[in-house]
Amino acid sequence: MLRRLALALACAGAALALPAPAAQADDMVWFQTPSGNVQCAVYSDGGWQLRCDMLETTNTPPRRPRACDFDYGHAFGLDATGKGRYLCVSDFIGNPEQARTVRYGRSIKVGPFTCVSRESGLTCTNKRAHGFTLSKARQRVF
């Protein structure tokens, strides 16, 4: 299965598939924007998950929830059917050495997710059209 995944990554613009359930980092698909500011990973831990983290933003993030003891405002999550959301995290999902760069004007499809890279930002959606749009100046979940 991983061999097929590697072949799919080699084909520009190809739809990608992950083995399920994913239990190791080798079972993740990483990608990033050309600037490297947005780093994403898709994995399946019994259900499809997409997480994108931002290295830098220029706006003020929303107030950290009381229940969050970690970083808030730079990580975003999406599952196969739910709405996009801010995440409370203590780590960073990026893996620049293994990440595929999705050039501006291109998209990547992994499992139920489609992400479109534009100079104005990265927009990721699931099959129910929920997701998020991320740019250095503005982040929006829907």
Could you please describe the fold and organization of this structure?
- The protein has one domain.
- The chain has one helix and eleven strands.
- It has one helix at residues 2-10; strands spanning 29-32, 38-44, 48-54, 71-79, 85-89, 100-101, 107-110, 113-118, 121-125, 131-134, 139-141.
- It has a six-stranded mixed β-sheet with strand order 5-4-3-2-1-6, with no helix packed on it. Strands 7-8-9-10-11 form a five-stranded antiparallel β-sheet, with no helix packed on it.
- The longest helix has 9 residues, at 2-10.
Short description:
By secondary structure, the protein is mainly β. Helix content is 6%, strand content 39%.
First-last Cα distance: 33 Å
Strand order of the largest sheet: 5-4-3-2-1-6
Shape: globular
Low-confidence spans:
1-24
The percent range for strand residues is 35-45%
Determine the number of helices (DSSP H or I, runs of at least 4 residues). 1
Radius of gyration using CA atoms only: 14 Å
SSE map:
Layout: H1 2-10, E1 29-32, E2 38-44, E3 48-54, E4 71-79, E5 85-89, E6 100-101, E7 107-110, E8 113-118, E9 121-125, E10 131-134, E11 139-141
Parallel strand pairs: 1-6
Antiparallel strand pairs: 1-2, 2-3, 3-4, 4-5, 7-8, 8-9, 9-10, 10-11
Note the main attributes of this structure.
disordered N terminus, 142 residues, 1 helix, 11 strands, five-stranded antiparallel beta sheet, 6% helix, six-stranded mixed beta sheet
